[in-house]
Amino acid sequence: MSGTVEYKKPLPVPDLESAEFWNGLKRHELTIQRCEKCGKHVYYPRSICPHCSAGPESLKWVKASGRGKVYTYAIVRQAAIPSFAPDVPYVIAVVELSEGPHMVTNIVGCKPEEVRCEMPVEIVYDDATPEITLPKFKPSG
To answer: What is the pTM of this model?
Structure first.
């Protein structure tokens, strides 16, 4: 592995329900599900609509705007596992996507103390490995 840096943090393991989400991120596109029966957007990936209980045939993958606002957040000042220690302090947040669903993520591109609830944010793509890209958000504008 000459010239590459090994990613040491835990990574998600895509499964049948989430593979399209992770494939979209690898293409630097945020894709989420939308229920054709009730019209609502769905995140996290699943096989049944949480709003109307429609089955998998009603859940279609659509490109999301990649924009939203901070719903809530926490500043991590002590790493729970050693691989996160170099990042301290960092922000774990719940972002309310413009389409409605909430996504747990990190806020990057600003000091942790600058993060506020309702702060407009937009997606950035963290290519952690050649196989996995992580969705993170930065302040908009």
So the answer is: 0.93
